[in-house]
Amino acid sequence: MKKHTLLLIFSLFLLVINTLAQNVASITGSVTDEAQQPLKGISVSLLRSTDSSLVKAELTDQQGFFSFQGIAAGSYLVQLSGFGFVKKTTQPVFFPATETTSLGSIKLVPEVKTLKELVVTGNKPLFEQKPDKLVVNVEAAASNAGANALEILEKSPGITVDKDGNVSLKGKAGVQIFIDGKPAYLSGADLANYLRNLQGTQLEQIEIMTNPPAKFDAAGNSGIINIRTKKTRQFGYNISATTGYTQGIYGRNNQNITFNYRKNKVNLFGTLSRGERTMQNVLTIDRKFLEPGTKNVVFLFDQSSVMNNQNTSNNAKLGADFYLSKKTTVGAVVNGFYNPGRFTNNSDISRSLPTNELFGKTDALSRSTSLWQNFSANTNFRHVFDSTGRELTADLDYIHYNAGNTQNLSNYYFNAAGQPNRKADTLLGNLPMLIHIYTGKADYVHPLKKGAKLEAGAKFAFVNSDANAVYDTVHNGQLMRDYGRSNHFTYREQINAAYVTYSRPVSKKLSAQLGLRLENTSARGRSKGKVYRNNAWVDFDTTFTLNYTQLFPTAYLQYNASEKHSWVINYGRRIRRPDYESLNPFVEFLDIYTFEQGNPNLRPQFSHNVELSHTYKGFLTTTLNYTNTNNIIQQVLEQNTERQETFVKQANIANQRQLGIAVSAFKRIKNWSGNVYLNVYDNKFEGVINGSPVTLSATTAVVSGSLSYKFKKGIATDLNGFFRTPGYEGVFNIQQFGSVNWGMSVPVLKTKGTVRVSVRDIFWTQRPAGSIKYGDVNAAFRNINDSRTVGVSFTYRFSKGKVNGNGKRKTSGADEEQNRVKGGGDN
User: Fold this and answer.
1) 471 with 479: CB under 8 angstroms?
2) How many CB atoms lie within 10 A of CB 162?
3) Which end of the chain is more exposed for a tag (fewer CB within 10 A), N or C?
4) How far does CA 78 lie from the centroid of its chain?
5) Are 711 and 739 in contact (CB under 8 A)?
6) Between the CA atoms of 652, 655, 659 and 665, what dihedral angle is there, to the nearest 10 degrees?
7) Which 3 state secondary structure label does DSSP give 813?
């Protein structure tokens, strides 16, 4: 879509809204505590003064602001309530139907009782459908005990985790992961490893946004998944300690302690966690190497690999908020992790003629070590100008990664009789990487008359990465530099962005929000090494540059037809930029015949997303979606028949079209609660891979559900699972698979502690298998993960103080940049 067309559409949206807008009455106000700090999540009810019947209900936003739109003339009461505060009801007030009436700032006082031990127990549903997102309440499912963040994501509605741990949303790759509004720092396999070491007991909610507003970075083809960790709203101190053990093929353990201390104008918070994990993965691959012209089978290649992954994760976070005045807050947060890992892979490889006559075998033994170290620092500022919600926030971030990765790959060769037929060889690799990220952003919110609101902001991000891959070969007992595989790659990128969002009620039942984001990207990559020419190794030094400016519009319309029916339609244009490491041309080996290679020719992909949702009685939501993606980034396989090699790389392979429908429902009857989620989507890929035209299409269905029961004394149990029909993940045709899980939580020690037990993948059915066929590539695989586990965890809480409802944000501005770091987890 051309830029002038996007500007014309945006202007027409503004014209339509201002044309349709009428003098709709509204009632506004804000809620604060005794220290004049805004209170988030306070329930505000508008009642008729004649009989106290409910007219409307709202929750205050992060600034403590609330607004009732389209109010008929009459006499009303406003009632406010929140946990830990005394309920408050205003005197009857007459509101005219043609004006906006402000109640100003309303103060809530805490309950007089001081709590020596504060234990909060909730009755939240597992899923909550909201206009702009789907919320998963993690602790509502007892089977999440002992589970990690990736396993919890895997059974969340619309989310699919593939055989390599890559996360997709509603059948679309390119999802962005955030932790508490901040990026997860990682991408690819290393993001999966990080999420495996993020303990489920630390999580509170998972927010799934398929079409985020313009305030968020435009990155993420399929949307954003924001994982919210547990926080406290209490004056005084609050400490929570958790320990857990999970048994699969191997054992895993984790420990975590979270603390918060709030007194007067200072709030201190922090987290320390440690985990040890060993997992096994058995991968079998059957390949047919084809003659490029005739497509006849030249030989067969069968491989069986047993991989063991050992990781230790050490994570720490420390932060402070300083309330300089009733309206101004500054804060600082530092994070760090130290994650050593060890990986082993034993592969048995058989090579046969098309007649299945064996002619050679190779035993490949790979040993690698990794050490990821990270330090990040954030400073933030927040100033509230007045009680209407006018606010300015700002963030500065610095993130540093230092990664070390060594590899030792030995290959032993045998003939069909099992006798050595050539000398063994060894490949040694040293793959260090440094990444520096600097970001800054500012956001301004300005409420307007008649319930309208204007938001604007700007952001800059600068990234500098340096990866120097050095390989040596031991051949016939001689150590020599392997120049063909060594490479020094540097990459610099700068992104400047600005956005504006305008929202307002159009009528009593219709509201709208429009946004436009502008992003300018400048990047330069440089690759240095040696290439073999004219019987000699000669130096090469190649560079590439990118410079482009793009507009990303968003639009939302919400129509509340009645108390039973509401509709939302939204549109957004998004971008997915390549991961930094995916641009790096160096090679990483699984064995001598199979390796992964970066692609410096990768370019961004762009998508247009449209969704129409209908909600019935607040419990049944149906969503239709359409997505068109150009220049899609996808993992592909390429083969060299002559050298009997297979390599994996990211490439801009095709355009993708998706049509889908999703239905979710939740119901609670007394102590029973249940939910079901069904997503059916049709994906179609059309493109060229390795010179061969490829068209792939399939319709896939994913269904998930849970059934929970709450006994007396707080004991709860739930049974949940998912099933996925066959379908495509990019160019991979994945067979059907699923999982069934069970869990129970039991309060102990006078509710100060909680014991949770769980059994995941009870029938061990989560075994992805599939095939890939296009051009001269023909392969099938099966993956047996260490997914059937039994886990137990114990949490103990002790605290002293009074509840504070202040929902102070603890987010940063380093959004999309940190998600594109393809490293930093536990390898």
Assistant:
1) no
2) 18
3) N
4) 38
5) no
6) 10
7) coil
Q: Are 818 and 399 in contact (CB under 8 A)?
A: yes
Structure tokens that stand for 754 in this block: 């909680």
Answer for the pair 545, 551: CB distance below 8 angstroms, yes or no. no
User: Which amino acid is present at 229?
Assistant: T
Question: Which residue has tokens 């497509």?
Answer: 295
Rounded to whole angstroms, the Cα distance separating 8 from 433 reads: 45
Three-state SS string across 523-579, please?
EEEEEEEEEEECCEEEEEEEEEEEEEEEEEEEEEEEEECCCCEEEEEEEEEEEECCC
74, 25, 27: which is closest to 51 by C-alpha? 74
Q: What angle (nearest 5°) sits at the alpha carbon of residue 634, between those of residues 767 and 683?
A: 75
| Six-digit token string for 688 | 């060229």
Residue with tokens 């020719």: 601
Tell me: pLDDT of 69 over 90: no
213-226 pLDDT, tens digit per residue, is: 888 787 766 778 88
Answer yes or no: are the C-beta atoms of 705 and 676 closer than 8 Å.
yes
The one-letter code for the residue type at 8 is: L
In this model, does residue 298 exceed pLDDT 70? Answer: yes
Partners of 60 in beta bridges:
none
> Against a cut of 0.90, is the pTM above it?
no
Q: What is residue 714's DSSP assignment?
A: G
Q: Determine whether 498 is exposed, middle or buried from the number of CB atoms within 10 Å of its CB (0-12, 13-18, 19+).
A: middle
Q: Are 713 and 701 in contact (CB under 8 A)?
A: no
Q: Are 632 and 92 in contact (CB under 8 A)?
A: no
Note the CATH architecture for domain 3-107: Sandwich (2.60)
Spatial neighbors of 540 by CB under 8 A, at least 6 apart, are 527, 528, 529, 530, 531
Q: What are phi and psi of 72, to 5 degrees?
A: -75, 155
Per DSSP, the residues of 440-452 read: EEEEEEEE-GGG-
Question: What is the Cα Rg of the chain in Å?
Answer: 28
Residue 181 is classified by DSSP as: T
The predicted structure's pLDDT at residue 21: 42
The amino acid sitting at 779 is: A
* Secondary structure element (H or E) that encloses residue 814, with its range: none
In the structure encoding, which two tokens stand for residue 787, read together?
Answer: 């997914």
- Which H or E run includes 313? strand 297-323
CATH class for the domain made up of 127-819: mainly beta
Distance separating alpha carbons of residues 271 and 282, to the nearest angstrom: 35
Distance CA 70, CA 346 (A): 68
Report the 10 Å Cβ neighbour count for 281.
18
Token readout for 481 is: 């530099």
The torsion angles phi and psi of 175, rounded to 5 degrees, stand at -75, 145
Instruction: Say whether 805 sits in a helix, a strand or coil.
Output: coil
pLDDT tens digits for 400-431?
989 899 999 999 999 999 999 888 889 999 98
Strands 26-32 and 100-107: parallel
What's the angle, vertex CA 378, arms to CA 375 and CA 383, rounded to 5? 175
Residue boundaries of the structural domains of the chain: 3-107, 127-819
